[in-house]
Task: structure prediction
Amino acid sequence: MSATTTTTRAEYCAIACADAWRDNGEVLASPMGLIPSIGARLAQRTFSPDLLLTDGEAMIVCLDGAAEGWLPYRQHLTMVSGGRRHVMMGASQLDRFGNQNISCIGDWQRPARQLLGVRGAPVNTLNNPVSYWVPTHSKRVFVEKVDMISGVGYDSAAAAGPSATRYHRIPRVVSDLGVFDFATPNRTMRLASVHPGVTVEEVQEATGFALALPDEVPPTREPTPTELRLIRTVLDPEGRRDREVPTP
Amino acid sequence: MTDKTMTPEDVVSRLRSGMTLGIGGWGSRRKPMALVRALLRSDVTDLTVVSYGGPDVGLLAAAGRIRRLVAAFATLDSIPLEPHFRAARQRGAFELTEIDEAMFMWGLHAAANRLPFLPVRSGLGSDVMRVNPALKTVTSPYEDGETFVAMPALRMDAALVHLHRADRRGNGQYLGPDPYFDDLFCEAADEAYVSCERLVDGFVGAVPQTLLVKRHAVTGVVETPNGAHFTSCVPDYGRDEPFQKLYATTPWPQFAERFLSGDEKAYQSAVQTWHEEQQ
Result:
């Protein structure tokens, strides 16, 4: 049986998340959520061994879970500002320029749905690379315009000037349908790859704005046998990934 | 030697309606909950609350005590969205100054250092600037000429924090993994009140770096065992997850009546009874 038929959708997602940290060097990988967390740990165990990872609290930990450093919130914020960090955040809304919203839905003055608040999205996006993970790709998330810009997109950074664009970078967006980047002349979201089993039409249909498309959209890469083994036996033996992203 | 020990009621008697009140901890972690509960028993209201928000914000918002909230978020951590904060926001119950986590930190630093503002890159390009039209920018006087947000000092009338140990003079020690911003809260406030799990006579043998809060910045010390309940206070105790879930899913009047109608002792006893019922 080939890997194509046995690899689950959640595993493609984890692989795509892991690749976000490829060639990042000695930076803190900050994954928010389960599948980015599997991805970051997979990257550290394979092609990006110099990554730093936390225990989700105040410690930087090695592969075996032993502490190798202390990172309380205020030092973590310095790491953000210093740029030696690549975070993969979630998004309640995301638009074509990569503006992200986790604050509220509707009018900010009196929101229809209050969410978390902007949290660290403004400082993250202006200071260190920020990628996004969206477990359920839909028009509700991929919107024409976000209600409250929490994470700064390319157009907003450009409008705010050189201090905003100086360290601003959104390497990639990963959803349950595909991988996206902003490698277009006007920095709009582009479909970089589709997960095997997903069509380009399906992705566009689930997106609330027109995606930029390369001439040919490649499939998201296959995991290596080692990567699959690590995901299945070491990083997520309980198969929690399949509950976050079921294979259709 | 000044003995600064007092009761939660003493602390609250020194607070006034309309004050700007800072609350330490982070999310649902090491919140001075016993002091917040004492505040709920008083008639102090119309507060400007400055907090990395958790159930402190939810409780005070549900009870209608907040006029303005200064925050980057409100969360219960294991339950991502704070339900009472959400409900209050959705009914327009208070004004919000929504800023970013780093802007918040530099606002505390500015206040503690008696500066009117500190420059930060964060905020630029985000809607934090749109919803806070009073925020101004500042241009670097050096060659780079960069423009930054001038984050105003978050000076507070009073701060409430919870630590693991404290002495009667107001020195406070944390034993957990993260100091959060509790020392900054104390230094950024005109008066600071430290509740603690246990009063100690001194800190012989302590790891020096754990002695977080210095007495010059502290007005009062309160011994409140289990005083961060139901938030986490590791290593003394973890978050009371079942109880937090109860808090998040029980209609506010019902929760308040069962758990908040008596004093702190009554609260702790009601919590214990509830846990026994669950077995």
